[in-house]
């Protein structure tokens, strides 16, 4: 079993829809949770960074962490065609940013 | 802030030649730099971790004599693919972790990647 599971998609939604992207994990030591956006043939770009449980909002993006369920989510409101990309979740145990555990990435396509 | 660059962005070489890829943190000093490999439609696979002035730590299954890593300064790391073969063709991505005194969010910031094609 992988330490981080993420549905690879692809996920196709119409412009303006609310998008929900999710990851589950098995290691209860994970404390830091990141979401990266990766456009085709580009490097991952840090979108959201959260510590422990709770919600964090940044513009149209909201990250949620439920440590009791070992489940994290990224919500995108009012999705735009420019949001079309692959979204990677990443996690690390407390204080160990030298070791990231990545999901496989979910490919999102927002249709105009 | 937290910008990481890579050069070149793409390279095509003949089998048997060596290729050097540079990774630079442009606006911060990096305690640690990382090299990843990514195959199409797959996630990132960590190849090695390097600290400035120290030997790199390679992940299991990664040939250290094949993938030479030099971390010469707090802003520059290089990956040299020696005697490249077609199976080395891939997307190579570096990342950098800011020095503790640099401030900002402690995480990994990724470069734009280098696409290597070996003929």
Number of discrete helical segments of chain B: 0
Poorly predicted tracts of residues of chain A: none
Oligomer: heterodimer
Radius of gyration of chain B: 14 Å
Shape of chain B: globular
Give the number of helices of chain A.
Answer: 0
Fraction of residues of chain B in helices? under 10%
Sheet/helix structural class of chain A? mainly beta
How many strand elements of chain B?
Answer: 11
Order of helices and strands of chain A: EEEEEEEEEEE
Rg of chain A, Cα atoms, Å: 13 Å
Helix content of chain A: under 10%
Distance between termini of chain B? 37 Å
Q: Whole-number average pLDDT of chain A?
A: 93
Beta fraction of chain B: over 45%
What structural category characterises the helix and strand content of chain B?
mainly beta
- Gap between N and C termini of chain A: 37 Å
Poorly predicted runs of 5 or more residues of chain B: none
**Mean pLDDT of chain B, as a whole number?**
91
H/E element sequence of chain B: EEEEEEEEEEE
Sheet with the most strands of chain A?
6 strands, mixed
Outline the structure in words:
The complex is a heterodimer of chains A (112) and B (119). With 112 residues, chain A is mainly β. Chain A is built from no helices and eleven strands. Chain A has strands at 4-6, 11-14, 19-25, 30-38, 45-51, 54-58, 61-66, 71-76, 85-93, 101-102, 106-111. Chain A starts with a strand and ends with a strand. The model of chain A has no long low-confidence stretch (mean pLDDT 93). With 119 residues, chain B is mainly β. Helix content of chain B is 0%, strand content 53%. Chain B has no helices and eleven strands. In chain B, strands 2, 4, 5, 6, 9, 10 and 11 form a seven-stranded mixed sheet that branches. Chain B has a four-stranded antiparallel sheet with strand order 1-3-8-7, with no helix packed on it. In chain B, a hairpin with a 5-residue loop joins β4 and β5 (44-51). Chain B is globular. The N and C termini of chain B lie far apart (37 Å). The model of chain B has no long low-confidence stretch (mean pLDDT 91). The interface between A and B is medium-sized, with 21 and 25 residues.
